[in-house]
Every structure is written in structure tokens, then in C-alpha cells.
Amino acid sequence: MDPCEKCEELIQPFLDRELTPAEVKEAEVHLRGCGYCRRRYRFEENLRMYVRQAWAEGMPPELKAKLAALRTPL
Length: 74
Known about the structure:
Blueprint: H1 3-15, H2 21-33, H3 35-57, H4 61-70
């Protein structure tokens, strides 16, 4: 398997701290040496931080109503 494909597979579990010690080492080594995967990792890390922050701040009632109006029935 291509190292970048393997890293892509490990990014989410790495962020969730669900990897074995060997997998953590494999991911860390690859991230140190691959700029593309390092940027991808930082993007995912920042996205998670943004989502946590947005969730903690809550949503104004007007925005909730607008989003609810956009829902389509299943």
C-alpha cells in the first residue's frame, strides 16, 4: 500500500488516539517526512478544533430555524 494511502487511513484514528503504539510511530514517521500528509493532518486537526469551538458556543435560534427549514424529508 502507498504510504500516503496508509497515512490517510490512520489520520482519523490517530486524532482519536485509537492506534496501537506501532501504528502511532508509523504515522508520526510518515507525517514528519511527508508535507502533503502533514498538511492534511493539520487540516483535520484544525477542523476538529473548529467544530468543538462552534459546538461549545452554541447556535443562535435564528440560525437553527434556517437550518431546520433546509431539511428535506427522508
